[in-house]
Amino acid sequence: MQNEIVFGIVLVAALLLSGLYWLQRRKVGFSKLVFGALVIGIVFGFILQLSFGATSKVVTAAIDWISIAGDGYIALLQMLIIPLIFVSLVGAFTRLKVTKNLRTISTTVLATLLLTTAVAALIGVISVFAFHLQGAGFISGTADKANVAVIKQHEAQLTNLTLPQQIVSFLPTNIFADFAGTRATSTIAVVIFSLFVGVAFLYVRDKEPEAAGTFARGIEALHQIVSRIVKLVLNLTPYGILALMTRATATDSIKSIANLGIFIIAAYVALIVVLIIHTLLLLVNRVNPVTYYKKVWPALIFAFTSRTSAGTLPLNVQIQTKSLGIDSAVANFAASFGLTIGQNGCAGVYPAMIATIIAPTVGVNVFSLHYILTLIAVVTISSFGVAGVGGGSTFTTLMVLGTLNLPVAIMGIIIAIDPIVDMARTLVNVNDSIVAGIIAAKRTDGLDTETLNDASKVVESTI
């Protein structure tokens, strides 16, 4: 009987996926499809959990089959991360028309990402205070074995490394190994290597323009191929989102969500405040927030549902260039740097909140100015190298906790509801990279204000 029930659940999932395919063939908008898949997945998942239980054999077996669509989609996105970063960053250099703008672009983007991360960390601390979460008194129960295993896996990569040594680990020693993604810091290593390649290209362009031209054409051809692959993968987004949300809501215990509900609310409040800070930056730079959010909505909803900043990269760049009028070189710098440096959600708010929750359990006075300033500095430095995929925030948080000599056991409990918080974190990460692109473009006259202010120029889909 159990097998028949599992078969029935998988059949319903297949019919839901077929329905999405039918809507896609009828040219329903990309954002509507993704949002629809999100809602359907949540409803379907909760129905499964309420009917059979989050840990029942029926749900486990059915989700195992349904996850083929979700995990397959994530695997394809991860496949694209390294090639996307390399061709995007090197391509930014080959498209750079005026070399003197390079310093302004890079410093403006980095300053925006890091300063907003520092502010986001402070907001995370204040949110913990506001909801009285310090000391972890709101946490009850024990960590799931699977969650503890995840923590230990990430922790093993940081064993016996001081913060300076962790920073050195960002540097590439074997770029081929990093292209294969063999380390947790492979992403930032590829970014660094790409920057070296880009700077070398600028030198060769001055000395050997013919060789530089050949290289630039090769990178452009490679960029076109990778972009085409990206579009093929993005076609699968609605199906992946439906499967991922079904698994999340079917297997994440409602009891766990209820127990940690106060943390979820506090995290979302902090992330919303960070978005308000982003909006203030837009106003300072004379950008209409209403028009801006209407234009970037497809990227934000994609980031929210997919939980991957890296997967949002192509849509991020396309919206910056086609909807906001940002120069392509600036857009590629901002989007690529935003994947691995200064993520406001995953590397700003979240680590600061976790550290402030845990610190009082070992006698640290979290209200002291020294603690707050130290935490903000550590969080900002640790924000270098965060991976733009699910799990990146866990690695960064462990770096922060390790540097501050704080225990990590409580994370094994909090990670149970991580996907719920991660959706909003990823949205904030992507938004910050786009805001950094606008600010850098304004400083270098790389912003087409006519395109920016034209409300009709909205990228609905990359397909």
TrEMBL record:
Top-level taxon in the UniProt lineage: Bacteria
Q: What membrane topology term does the record carry?
A: Multi-pass membrane protein
Q: Which Pfam families match?
A: SDF
Respond yes or no to whether keyword Transmembrane is given for this record. yes
One GO cellular-component annotation of the UniProt record comes to: plasma membrane
Q: Listed GO molecular functions?
A: L-cystine transmembrane transporter activity; symporter activity
Where does the record place it?
A: Membrane
Q: Which residues cross the membrane?
A: 6-23, 30-52, 72-93, 105-131, 184-204, 225-245, 257-284, 371-389, 395-417
Q: Which UniProt keywords apply?
A: Amino-acid transport, Membrane, Transmembrane, Transmembrane helix, Transport
Give the family this protein belongs to, as stated in its UniProt record.
Answer: Belongs to the dicarboxylate/amino acid:cation symporter (DAACS) (TC 2.A.23) family.
Q: Please report the name of this protein according to its UniProt entry.
A: L-cystine uptake protein TcyP
- According to its UniProt entry, this protein's organism is Lentilactobacillus parafarraginis F0439
